[in-house]
Specification:
The structure holds two protein chains of two kinds. By secondary structure, chain A is mainly α. The mean pLDDT of chain B is 85. Chain B has two domains: 32 residues; 99 residues, Alpha-Beta Plaits (2-Layer Sandwich). By secondary structure, chain B is of the alpha+beta class. Classes of the chains: A mainly alpha, B alpha+beta.
């Protein structure tokens, strides 16, 4: 049967049979890089279109419906427009940092892609500290945002960047603690092991109360970390025009825009891996026939449907809730989410030690 | 007590957020609620009393009710209407005043409706059309009486 694992193995076999091992590694890295970049491009197009349609339907509007079938080509047209637009650099800007910032954010988004398992055996890099790697690299994106805010020489940009810094640093804590809950259950930091531990049931069902609480906290925290409404203070349109990317235009702006959506995809992929079993199918205890049918659906479909469900959830938040004030934002983190997630971690440890999970 | 207040705050806020999500979720799955009008494809129907432009009412015999009394021209606050009159000879040999051209400057009109109220014979009315964009300003100066039209019999 055709599977992506077989395909990856076949490519590896063909390459190692024909060229030397270092060259094989090089070619494989280039192939992986091209695949990641093309995944980025497709994700950008699909997610922007999805966002516009979801927002439209939630606000009783129609959304883009002119370009292509039901407006499918709208984002393609927008991308084309951004490509041919002039990329202005303000006179007072720090030219080097101004050009580096969008590159840095997109590179960070690309780096987190490495340990994500798309389906069985289809993973770029299964490191044994996957969870640590993800939470460490994802906090680097704040440097890109601060860089953009500082280099723009614009008070709106700087304010947005500082807010974003405060926000990401605070919410990293809850996101990390809620992932640690799953690490406590699994006993491993590797994303591959976390998925394998969910063969007999996803952690959100097996871990019941602590897993559920940490899932909710994780979703809230990553919404804040990706600077999306209701936590989009970094780019609050009504207060700061566009926050840290006020001065950006053309392709540099497009890179920021793309990295926002890729970040959403990545954090949703992490959430799907840790709580919803990654590429594993949905199984009900002892329903053999049902489980057989579920096994027939390939892992990549399971993975992407879970991720897109979570992305839809985050979009749902964005188009329902009003934006928080900065003090309310920090209150929510330090007075509510952090105590709850710390208490939840204790509870999870208790559950894990007593073996109360299924 | 502090702890109960804390838990109550958390539950109440979660419930209110879920209420909001229920509303938007309902709209997401019920597309019949969409209020967007696809304007160029589906023609917009304006309200009956919408004031789009002044028109002169003509019946099927190409007759209008305008006697050329210039009451509308006097009532207009910004000189939108200009009536050019002429004298016609009736079959009895009497000379009678009638309109030659009823000039209406749409670009000056504020749709205040004073001309319609001033008209003693209800010869003009407000029309609910709204697609008035043109490429040249001169096209906004309109002659309201149709060519060859004449005064309806019995209207003084």
């Amino acid at each position: 049967m055709f599977s992506l694992e077989n395909l990856a193995d076949k490519v590896h076999d063909v390459l190692s049979a024909s060229v030397s091992p270092p060259l094989t590694l090089l070619i494989e890295m280039i192939i992986a890089g091209i695949l990641v970049i093309s995944l980025f491009a497709v994700l950008g197009l699909v997610l922007v279109f999805m966002e516009r349609k979801v927002s439209a339907y939630m606000q009783i509007r129609l959304g883009p419906n002119r370009v292509g079938y039901k407006g499918m080509m709208q984002t393609m047209a927008d991308t084309l427009k951004l490509l041919v637009k002039e990329g202005l650099v303000p006179d007072g800007a720090d030219k080097f940092l101004f050009n580096l910032a969008p590159l840095l954010t997109i590179i960070v988004a690309m780096l987190i892609m490495a340990p994500i398992a798309f389906t069985k055996g289809f993973q770029l890099w299964d490191i044994n500290i996957g969870v640590l790697y993800v939470s460490a690299v994802s906090s680097v994106s704040v440097i890109g945002i601060l860089m953009a805010g500082w280099a723009s020489d614009n008070k709106y940009s700087l304010l947005g960047a500082m807010r974003s810094g405060a926000q990401i640093v605070s919410y990293e804590l809850s996101a990390g603690l809620s992932i640690i809950t799953i690490v406590v259950f699994t006993g491993s930091l590797s994303l591959g092991d976390i998925i394998n531990s969910q063969r007999d049931g996803w952690w959100i069902f097996k871990g019941h109360i602590p897993a559920l609480i940490s899932f909710v906290i994780f979703i809230i925290a990553v919404t804040a970390e990706t600077n999306r409404a209701p936590f989009d203070l970094a780019e609050a349109e009504s207060e700061l025009t566009a926050g840290f990317h006020t001065e950006y235009s053309g392709m540099r702006f497009a890179l920021f825009f793309l990295s926002e959506y890729v970040n959403i995809f990545v954090v949703c992929a992490i959430a799907a891996t840790a709580f919803l079993g990654g590429w594993l199918p949905f199984h009900i205890w002892h329903f053999e026939a049902f489980n057989m049918v579920m096994d027939f659906i390939p892992g990549i479909v399971w993975f992407f449907s879970k991720v897109f469900f979570l992305i839809f959830l985050i979009m749902w938040f964005r188009w329902t809730f009003p934006r928080l004030r900065i003090d309310q934002l920090l209150n929510l983190e330090w007075k509510y989410l952090l105590p709850i997630s710390m208490f939840n971690l204790l509870l999870a440890t208790l559950v894990a030690i007593s073996g109360w999970y299924f | 007590m502090f702890i109960t207040d804390y838990i109550k705050t958390v539950t109440n806020s979660v419930i209110s957020l879920l209420k909001g999500m229920k509303m938007t979720g309902y709209y997401f799955f019920h597309h019949k609620e969409i209020i967007t009008q696809q304007y160029p494809d589906v023609k917009q129907v304006m309200a009956e009393r919408f004031r789009g432009e002044v028109v002169m009412i003509h019946d099927e015999n190409n007759e209008h009710k305008c006697t050329g009394c210039t009451a509308c021209e006097l009532a207009c606050p910004n000189a939108t209407i200009k009536i050019v009159t002429k004298f016609e000879t009736t079959p009895e040999g009497k000379k009678k005043k009638a309109i030659d051209t009823f000039v209406y400057h749409l670009e000056l009109c504020t749709m205040c409706n004073l001309c319609i109220e001033a008209c003693p014979t209800a010869a003009i009315k407000m029309d609910p059309t709204f697609e008035h964009s043109v490429y040249d300003r001169s096209q906004l100066t309109k002659v309201l009486n149709k060519p060859g039209s004449k005064l309806m019999a019995g209207v003084e």
